[in-house]
Amino acid sequence: MAYDDQNIFAKILREEIPCNKIYEDNYVLSFYDINPQKKIHALVIPKGKYIDLDDFNKNASNEEIAGLIKGISIVAKKLGISTENGKGYRALANISEDGGQEVPHLHFHIFGGEKIGKMVS
Ligand code: 5GP
Known about the structure:
By secondary structure, the protein is an alpha+beta fold. It has four helices and five strands.
């Protein structure tokens, strides 16, 4: 499957549609989920065009991979929910249809601000 340039996160990256931005650097953009499932629900996405985690790990550079993984901790700290803040959170990526992925641009969900509870329902 080819990357779809018209997916909603591609449009957010191109600033064609707005987002409630939390953090940005050379590798990632982070913003609040439009339909929060927990008290804090953020998204962290790579700036490159990657459909899902498998596509990312196959095709992204080591710098991009490190940038995304580090970006998750940076965002959690910025949100005040990292272990450095004495808190915790859940980072979760849905991968393809069986994984429940709806937007075909790799993204990690960051859930926090309360007890997140059961891992899978
Ligand atoms: P997925 O099911 O693909 O893992 O998650 C996609 C997420 O993107 C959902 O949690 C959904 O609420 C969020 N989302 C969809 N459209 C938009 C949008 O236009 N803006 C933002 N901020 N989040 C969106």
